[in-house]
């Protein structure tokens, strides 16, 4: 029987004004950006309190509000567990309950930044091209009913229109999702949508707005129920919404803010640079690319977490060869960085047994993640004459995964906006090769360079057939032999 602990509450420190509205109040932002912002205010002051917005569900607000929006960030490192209470979120709004309140919060004069962690699918773009998906149901709804937006781009456009009407400068729109050139992508989506609503608004955003690109990094597994008890035992306080994270963190931001207005992030280790591209390519390809690779192959091989997957020697060797032979040769390192050292440090981060990051969690939304994590670099590597057999196997593993049946014949709980269509395509094909080819034909996911590459088609079909016959672990073992 767990002891009764008093609820975590906020200390009585004076509260700063709200300067940031954050869309998508998941664990990642609370374990990453929010902590940096709290530290920047502690170091240099400023009114950079955060209004958090949940775009879909009320759960987060319901858990945080009774705690004054304070929460515990529990660092899980090789040298033990370090809890820390974070007080930087001032209030939480739930968008579907009152969209107008969210627009009003974003349009408040004190707000200078709107940041986002809405996951890949929250941008309502076409994964293969990065352009706004005009027939996306949320975008259609936002065009039909602009007063009550539901999508992140819809809220941004509506709130920027309100600021323009009030004679205020735009806020800086800062994407913190794992998308290539995320600032540029978001700018494109917002401008596309604004142009459909009001071309004058689009021109104003184009001229006055800023959409800095960022690279964000910290491994933050989803919080589980048992973690709440663990945090209570450790801290003596009941926290209904703690976040768990690894010690490592990195944030690289293109220093392009409207009127230069931002927290003093440089004081707390954020790298403010002119060009984020080499950092973002390094992180997206080396980390997220292998995360997804290990997630699909590891899941099929029966591994529950990434730490468990890389504790399996065959997988550790495999992922090291993927870095060395397939990923790193295609990258230009950021100034002063050794990509070999970076990838070895990643392996150590993956191996951290304190972080129980489920392969199933990372496997979610593969149709949205694969293009930027794996497919672009796969196509480039093939064009440069590299074999790319590990990443080809990763694609085949994703195809097996979305087929919906694991190696023991059990159903897989596939979470993906395209799950139904992918499963139907897989089910309709008569044999393994046919399934691989049917899925490769999905043009929203696969670029033409891959779809039309006869040699790749053959190798992918062989990898898929190998997975079906021998299983993921055997294929991982023999992949680079
Ligand atoms: C992961 C990322 O869930 C996933 O898809 O690859 O959330 C990853 O843990 C972070 O990007 C690390 O910075």
Radius of gyration: 22 Å
> Which second-level CATH architecture of the largest domain applies?
3-Layer(aba) Sandwich
Residue fraction in strands: 5-15%
Largest beta sheet: strand ordering: 5-2-1-6-7
- CATH class of the largest domain reads Alpha Beta
Low-confidence sequence ranges: none
In CATH, the topology of the largest domain is named Rossmann fold
Q: Determine the fraction of residues in helical runs and give it as a percent range.
A: 40-55%
Q: Distance between the terminal alpha carbons, to the nearest Å?
A: 52 Å
**Biggest beta sheet attributes:** 5 strands, parallel
Write down how many β-strands occur, each being a DSSP E stretch of 2 or more residues.
11
Describe this structure in words.
The chain has 481 residues and is α/β, with parallel strands linked by helices. It folds into two domains: 18-273, Rossmann fold (3-Layer(aba) Sandwich), CATH 3.40.50; 277-478, N-(1-d-carboxylethyl)-l-norvaline Dehydrogenase, domain 2 (Orthogonal Bundle). It contains 21 helices and eleven strands. It is globular and about 60 Å long. The mean pLDDT is 96. It binds D-mannonic acid (CS2). The site of D-mannonic acid has 9 residues, from α10 and α14.
SSE map:
Blueprint: E1 18-23, H1 27-31, H2 33-44, E2 49-54, H3 59-64, E3 71-77, E4 80-86, E5 89-94, H4 99-106, E6 113-116, H5 137-144, H6 152-165, E7 172-175, H7 182-197, H8 199-208, E8 214-217, H9 225-235, E9 243-245, E10 250-254, E11 271-273, H10 277-300, H11 306-311, H12 313-327, H13 339-351, H14 359-363, H15 366-383, H16 389-402, H17 419-428, H18 432-440, H19 448-451, H20 454-470, H21 472-478
Parallel strand pairs: 1-2, 1-6, 2-5, 3-9, 6-7, 10-11
Antiparallel strand pairs: 3-4, 8-10
Helix pairs in contact: 4-6, 6-7, 7-8, 10-12, 10-15, 10-16, 12-13, 15-16, 16-20, 17-18, 18-20, 20-21
Bound molecules: D-mannonic acid (CS2).
């Amino acid at each position: 029987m767990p002891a009764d602990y008093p609820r975590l509450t906020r200390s009585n420190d004076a509260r700063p004004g709200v300067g940031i509205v954050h869309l998508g109040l998941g664990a990642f932002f609370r374990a990453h950006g929010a902590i940096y912002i709290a530290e920047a205010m502690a170091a240099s002051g400023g009114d950079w309190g955060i209004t958090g917005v949940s775009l879909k569900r009320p759960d987060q607000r319901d858990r945080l509000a009774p705690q004054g929006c304070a929460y515990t960030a529990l660092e899980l490192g090789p040298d033990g567990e370090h809890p820390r209470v974070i007080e930087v979120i001032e209030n939480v709004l739930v968008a579907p309950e009152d969209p107008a309140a969210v627009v009003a919060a974003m349009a408040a004069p004190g707000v200078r930044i709107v940041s986002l962690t809405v996951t890949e699918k929250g941008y309502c773009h076409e994964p293969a091209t990065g352009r706004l998906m005009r027939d996306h149901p949320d975008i259609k709804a936002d065009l039909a009913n602009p007063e009550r937006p539901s999508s992140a781009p819809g809220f941004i456009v509506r709130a920027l229109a309100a600021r323009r009407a009030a004679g205020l400068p735009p806020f800086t729109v800062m994407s913190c999702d794992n998308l290539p050139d995320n600032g540029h992508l978001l700018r494109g989506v917002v401008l596309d949508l604004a142009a459909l609503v009001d071309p004058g608004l689009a021109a104003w955003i184009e001229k006055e707005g800023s959409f800095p690109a960022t690279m964000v990094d910290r491994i933050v597994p989803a919080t589980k129920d048992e973690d709440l008890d663990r945090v209570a035992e450790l801290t003596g306080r009941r926290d209904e919404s703690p976040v768990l994270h690894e010690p490592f963190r990195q944030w690289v931001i293109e220093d392009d803010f409207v009127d230069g207005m931002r927290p003093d992030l440089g004081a707390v280790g954020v790298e403010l640079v002119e060009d984020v591209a080499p950092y973002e390519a390094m992180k997206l390809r080396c980390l997220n690319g292998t995360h997804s690779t290990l997630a699909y192959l590891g899941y099929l091989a029966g591994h529950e977490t990434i730490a468990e997957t890389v504790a399996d020697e065959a997988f550790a060797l495999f992922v090291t060869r993927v870095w060395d032979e397939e990923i790193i040769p295609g990258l230009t390192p950021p100034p002063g960085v050794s990509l070999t050292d970076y990838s070895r440090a990643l392996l150590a981060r993956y191996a951290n047994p304190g972080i129980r990051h489920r392969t199933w969690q990372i496997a979610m939304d593969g149709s949205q993640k694969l293009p930027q994590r794996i497919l672009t670099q796969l196509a480039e590597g093939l064009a440069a004459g590299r074999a790319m057999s590990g990443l080809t196997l990763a694609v085949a593993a994703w195809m097996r995964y979305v087929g919906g049946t694991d190696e023991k014949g059990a159903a897989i709980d596939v979470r993906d906006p395209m799950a139904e269509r992918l499963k139907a395509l897989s089910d309709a094909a008569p044999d393994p090769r046919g399934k691989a080819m049917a899925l490769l034909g999905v043009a929203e996911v696969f670029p033409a360079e891959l779809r039309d590459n006869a040699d790749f088609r053959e190798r992918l079909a062989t990898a898929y057939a190998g997975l079906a016959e021998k299983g993921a672990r055997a294929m991982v073992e023999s992949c680079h032999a």
